[in-house]
Amino acid sequence: MGAGPLTITNSLSNCRAMDYKAAGVDIEAGEALVDDIKPYVKATRTPGVLSEIGLFGGLFDARFPDMEHPVLVASTDGVGTKLNVAIMAGKHDSVGQCLVNHCVNDILACGARPLFFLDYFATGRLERGVARDVIKGIATACQQNGAALLGGETAEMPSLYKDGDYDMAGTIVGVVEKSRILNGTRVSVGDVLIGLPSTGLHTNGYSLARAALFPTYTTDQYVDALGCTVGESLLAVHSSYLGVVWPALEAGLISALSHITGGGIIGNTSRVLQPGQALDVSWGSWSVPEIFRLIQHAGTITDDEMRHVFNLGVGMIMIVSPDKVDQVMQLTHQAAPFIIGHVTPA
């Protein structure tokens, strides 16, 4: 028998035609979400933005006429399992702010100010209200930090995420004058560590916190020592230190900055030390927020582990030469800075 052409016959009268929505992806819902967030994105527009939402890429004017040698600084991050707490509590408007502020602090630690931000939001089934709240939070923090929300991506992937679950990440790009880059080379033995308070866990340590707390507590449970519910304390917005620190940076008063994230005070601040230098931290010199005491007691966690995992109330550390401490304390007084230690010989 000779080979003939292959013929496939579809009988739509006998079966239901498959479409993308039936497979779990709702294109129309995604398009409606874009319409929802356009006002938020527009509010973040800065003079450097050259594009509108909806193009295949975001355009930003790369001329910096007021700078002698501009250097771009980029960072990408997420908020980890803080998202699990947001989902448990049904509160999604703060985690987007946390994402942006975390990234702003990371490039601030290099001496940079933010230019623009790109977000990525992925979910199993797009819940328009949830996504809108998250992205509204992102836009709010971008506006507060003077960064344009230049673009982003929303992905609906039912085969990877369960209904109700979502994940997000963000990329920030900033700029710093080359001569003002902070990379640890200005740090000297004898420099003073000045801490700026955190609002709580910020965006790190949530896997341990959840394991410690949620066999006993619920997100809506009020705790007198916290002055709020467990969920409210855990979802407190990650502080941005840009507005607080920038005047001292502009004045050339800071030797280095350390953003206290995963790894705690020692792990992060050691990244900006030079060979032959070490840290002397006075652990009892500031008031540790009650949420950390609650976590430690509930999980029977050692002091060493707490110091290794959490910021313990110190969100950013400014490393400053002794002769500039008074000026820095004055310039940042609105954030209630406190001295927590020194740089010592290793």
What does it look like?
It is a single chain. Helix 1 packs parallel to helix 4, helix 3 (95-108) packs parallel to helix 4 and helix 5 packs across helix 9 (290-299). The protein has 346 residues and is an alpha+beta fold. The protein is built from eleven helices and eleven strands. The protein has two domains: 27-179, 2-Layer Sandwich (60s Ribosomal Protein L30, Chain: A); 192-345, Phosphoribosyl-aminoimidazole Synthetase, Chain A, domain 2, CATH 3.90.650. The chain has helices at 27-43, 82-89, 95-108, 128-145, 206-213, 230-234, 242-250, 264-269, 290-299, 303-309, 325-331; strands at 70-78, 113-123, 148-156, 166-177, 192-197, 222-223, 228-229, 256-259, 277-281, 314-320, 338-345. It has a five-stranded antiparallel sheet. Helix content is 32%, strand content 22%.
Brief overview:
The protein is α+β, with helices and mostly antiparallel strands and 346 residues long. 32% of the residues lie in helices and 22% in strands. The strands form three sheets. A five-stranded antiparallel sheet has the order 8-10-5-11-9. The protein has a four-stranded mixed sheet with strand order 1-4-2-3.
What sequence of helices (H) and strands (E) makes up the elements? HEHHEHEEEHEEHHEHEHHEHE
- What general outline do the C-alpha atoms trace? globular
Structural class: alpha+beta
CATH architectural type of the largest domain: Alpha-Beta Complex
Number of helices: 11
CATH superfamily of the largest domain, by name, is PurM-like C-terminal domain
**Poorly predicted ranges:** none
- Mean of the pLDDT scores? 93
- Gyration radius (Cα, Å) is 24 Å
Bin the strand percentage.
Answer: 15-25%
- The CATH first-level class of the largest domain comes to Alpha Beta
CATH topology of the largest domain: Phosphoribosyl-aminoimidazole Synthetase, Chain A, domain 2
How many separate domains make up the residues? Answer: 2
Quaternary state of this entry equals single chain
Report the helical percentage: 25-40%
Q: Count the beta strands.
A: 11
Strand order of the largest sheet: 8-10-5-11-9
